[in-house]
Automatic annotation (TrEMBL):
Pfam families: RRM_1
Protein name (database record): RRM domain-containing protein
Signal peptide positions on this chain: none
UniProt organism field: Aegilops tauschii subsp. strangulata
UniProt entry tagged with the keyword DNA repair: no
Keywords: RNA-binding
């Protein structure tokens, strides 16, 4: 379960900078997200998922 998601916006253009920070409900959900989503394609773009 996703607890929070913050898309990073360029302050000048008001457009997405192409990345976001996602907070998961628990550590196991975060690990599973990294394991299954890292280096997958989302809407035609290769995504990276990592713990920060």
């Amino acid at each position: 379960q996703v607890k929070d998601c913050r898309v990073v916006i360029d302050p000048r253009t008001k457009e997405s900078r192409g990345f976001a920070f996602v907070t998961m409900e628990n550590v196991e959900d975060a690990r599973r997200c990294i394991k299954y989503l890292h280096r997958t394609v989302l809407e035609g773009r290769l995504i990276s998922v990592a713990k920060v």
